[in-house]
Amino acid sequence: MLRYVALASDYDGTIARDGIVAEHVHAALQRVRESGRRVVLVTGRRLEELAAVFPHLELFDRIVAENGATLYRPKMKEVAVLAPPPPRAFVDALLAHGIPLDVGHVIVATREPHETLVLDTIREQGLEMQVIFNKGAVMVLPSGVNKATGLDAALSELGVSWHSVVGVGDAENDHAFLSRCECSFAVADALPAVRERCDVVTAGGAGDGVAELAEALLRSDLAELEERVARHRVAVGTDGDGHEVELGPYGETVLVAGPEGSGKSTIATGLLERLADAGYQFCLLDPEGDHEGLPAVVLGDAKREPTCDEIVEVLARPDQSAVANLSGLERERRPPYLLTLLARLQDLRTRFARPHWIALDDVHRVLTSSWEGSELDRSLVLPGMLLISDDPDAISPVALAALTAVVALGEKAGEVLARVARAAGWPALEEAAPARPGEALFARRGEPVVRVRVDRPRAERRRHRRKYAEGDLGPDASFYFRGADGRLNLRAQNLSLFLQLADGVDVETWNHHRRLGEYSRWVREAIRDEALANEIAAVERDPSLSAQDARARVKQAIERFYAVPAG
Questions:
Q1: What is the pLDDT of residues 163-178, one digit of tens each?
Q2: Full set of structural domains in the chain with CATH
């Protein structure tokens, strides 16, 4: 499976030197296309101007021209204009000054030192336009239009994610698209600021540097550069020193193991949320419908399983992830269904390098310990998989052998790690103490075990907040306004009702519970929110606050931490 399925390159000063593309550079880019990858040109030139100096436009799958304002489809010979044309009055005003001007579908271009006149004209006419510089060129475009927005349109049409793109450029106007690419290259004679911000600087300059990049891409899919793109790594949690423990966004096969109720869903959901936040696409295969609230399109329910076609259709868009709820599928039908779906997903990966991650819950029920699979089936266990199980001993050795990392939870987490490591063929792991609540044990092949503190994912925090803001905590966990002499017995079974009752009780009752620190104690013990409890405790301890002010401060704190509905 390829990581990089598209190469995006600038033209002048990148693939071309003095406007000319050398034959060996042309040939290198042709080999990239023949490998099944896409090649996209991203240039500030107008299309007609480009064709005059480089007539082989069919070399590219898409051409982003006019610095992101137009898109050309060489195979269909179609031009798509991505932004409105420049106002006629603006162009006329510049022409009236006699400056050199080049006008395209959208772009208006001149040269330094005419940028002052351009800016003055934009200001005088009250236009929402921007000026972009490129080695002495001065380009005027509608605000927000740049090479990144143009490339985004091209990649959307090609079904390619930014995370599957390697980009190369040399000048100021390349910053926008290079910063989005998973891996960015600058040719050796690029501007210093571009070289400084890119992941890699080629040994060769314009033309030669792109040929160098093309050969490396074909040779190794840039695997040797994994450490250079470490900015994309995803946190599992933090260690005892507060440092993040991370996974690579590509090339990992991770098992999350622990008994029922140990927090496997918390770990998995948090990882998938962070991957989605970073723009990676995932597909979660959820046999029991246990995973809620993820940033993804949910397909299927307790009455109907989703079809493979429905799932693949959702994943056709690089910006969409999918959760396949299979709770409506009979248990005995799940293994063959999931193997069929995995094959479809791997086919999608072969063509588009996504979904970047495939998560499979209850993996031990599909890839069982007796499962060896055909050669084709074995190919389904690939990098970029998140496997979740409460019975790791029942998982196929084929799947375990592919693991690069294990996250274990529960009192027997150390034992689980040791058994999985042995089954996966890892060196023996040191003994580790049981994982405490909110913690997990994390291990990689050949590395020490790390104790990791795990944050609750947003989806769980939202459920947590709804429960405490609006739900019923039960008699034992409710707050009771009773007062000093026990005259009252007003029960607040959630934060919303607490605020309503707190607003209505008399000053003496309010101050009684405040003096005893019972508000913060309830929040700490029943709501289990240490940060909010500490804030309320500070209010309780402040003698300068009147009852009215203290009530207001407590209310503000609760409403800031929780979306409490109005009473």
A1: 999 999 999 999 999 9
A2: 1-81+146-230 (3.40.50.1000), 84-144 (3.90.1070), 234-455 (3.40.50.300), 459-561 (no CATH)
